[in-house]
């Protein structure tokens, strides 16, 4: 209900499409928007462009660097010396 007042119709549509693919990300964005609205930080409806900027900001913060682990096979003939 609160999200309907805070988001423009285009932003709501985008957030619902994101929720289909990544529900946990959509939920975190919804929680962030609700908290911001309750604290009075959002004074006007959030446009789709502003939602995209918010999503990009969240992606930068949560993006993990890929970790590569190389496991080499040891030959039976190799010495441990």
TrEMBL record:
InterPro entries linked to this entry: PDCD5-like, PDCD5-like_sf
Source species, domain of life: Eukaryota
Pfam family, one: dsDNA_bind
Sequence intervals crossing the membrane: none
Gene Ontology molecular function, alphabetical: DNA binding
GO cellular component: cytosol; nucleus
Family indicated by similarity: Belongs to the PDCD5 family.
UniProt protein name: Programmed cell death protein 5
